[in-house]
């Protein structure tokens, strides 16, 4: 087995991914079909390993393939794509969502944006209409 984080990173995080190999392709397919494995006193999700470098994303403009210290683009908010930083972002909660949450008996979290108020800068710039997520969302369709 091999952890996908450095030993220093492992000391500061509660979760990480691990790569392990089996020497029988049929066993590998069988494990992947089940989709989970009991390890470390819990069930862990399984998926095939894809060896590719991590995506480099700027924390200034939220664009790809550069870092903030080399960014030549205006600052963009990670949450709404406006020209301000996240720490200047004003949270917007709409009455419709608040009423729906309360009607369903769900917990109402103060200080969180409704998801339909989020706007990924990358998806918006690409002309996509499915941009209701933060710019660093793992399942951002522009990044995938």
- Rounded mean pLDDT is 83
Distance between the termini: 27 Å
- Give the overall shape, derived from the CA principal axes: extended
- Low-pLDDT stretches: none
Give a nutshell description of this structure.
The chain is an alpha+beta fold. Helices cover 21% and strands 8% of the residues.
Based on the model shown, name its key terms.
two-stranded antiparallel sheet, extended, 144 residues, 8% strand, alpha+beta, 4 helices
Detail the topology: elements first, then pairings.
Blueprint: E1 2-3, H1 7-11, E2 18-19, H2 25-34, E3 36-39, E4 42-45, H3 95-104, H4 121-125
Antiparallel strand pairs: 1-2, 3-4
Report on the architecture of this protein.
There is one protein chain. It is extended, with a radius of gyration of 20 Å. With 144 residues, the chain is α+β, with helices and mostly antiparallel strands. It is 21% helix and 8% strand. The protein has helices spanning 7-11, 25-34, 95-104, 121-125; strands spanning 2-3, 18-19, 36-39, 42-45. A two-stranded antiparallel ribbon has the order 1-2. Strands 3-4 form a two-stranded antiparallel sheet. The protein starts with a strand and ends in a 19-residue tail after the last helix. A hairpin with a 2-residue loop joins strand 3 and strand 4. It has four helices and four strands, in the order E-H-E-H-E-E-H-H. The longest helix is centred in the N-terminal third of the chain and has 10 residues, at 25-34. The mean pLDDT is 83.
């Amino acid at each position: 087995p091999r952890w996908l984080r450095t030993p220093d990173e492992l000391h500061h995080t509660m979760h990480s991914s691990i790569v392990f190999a089996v020497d029988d392709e049929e066993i590998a397919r069988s494990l992947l079909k089940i989709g989970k494995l009991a390890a470390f006193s819990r069930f862990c999700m399984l998926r095939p390993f894809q060896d590719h470098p991590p995506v480099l994303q700027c924390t200034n403009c939220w664009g790809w393939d550069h870092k903030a210290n080399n960014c030549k683009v205006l600052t963009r908010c990670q949450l709404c794509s406006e020209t301000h930083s996240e720490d200047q972002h004003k949270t917007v909660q709409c009455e419709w969502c608040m009423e729906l949450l309360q009607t369903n008996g769900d917990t109402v979290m103060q200080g969180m944006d409704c998801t339909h108020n989020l706007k990924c800068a990358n998806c918006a710039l690409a002309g996509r209409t499915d941009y209701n997520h933060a710019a660093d969302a793992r399942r951002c369709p522009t990044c995938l």
